[in-house]
Write a structure and sequence with these properties.
alpha+beta; Beta Polymerase, domain 2; 3 helices; globular
Length: 119
Amino acid sequence: MDAMPQSMDARTLTLRAAAFLADKKGEELVAIDVSKVSSLFDYAILVSGSSPPHLKAMFNDLQHSLKQEGVHAFRKSGTPESGWMVLDYFDLVIHIFLHETRHYYALEDLWPEAPRLEC
């Protein structure tokens, strides 16, 4: 099954997912264009939540919302209790963290030269 319908490109999906996560009170939201520095995917979203239930709500609600638009996650990983959940949409990978876990792994530091998107 395709991750994105033909009518939605990766940038549009990234901006739509970022806006959705912002509406769900996602914190420290960053959308990064890694297309020139990564051969694995084109965009990454990193967002923090305040508690395991908040992570779970963002994870589940985002999946449901995108599925309604015909966009299905290729892979899903993590649990709210682990402090890190991941949604893989091929060209977009979304990391949903607890604050402590996010700061520990500091994924933003992997792509310091990659441009941030205005969300």
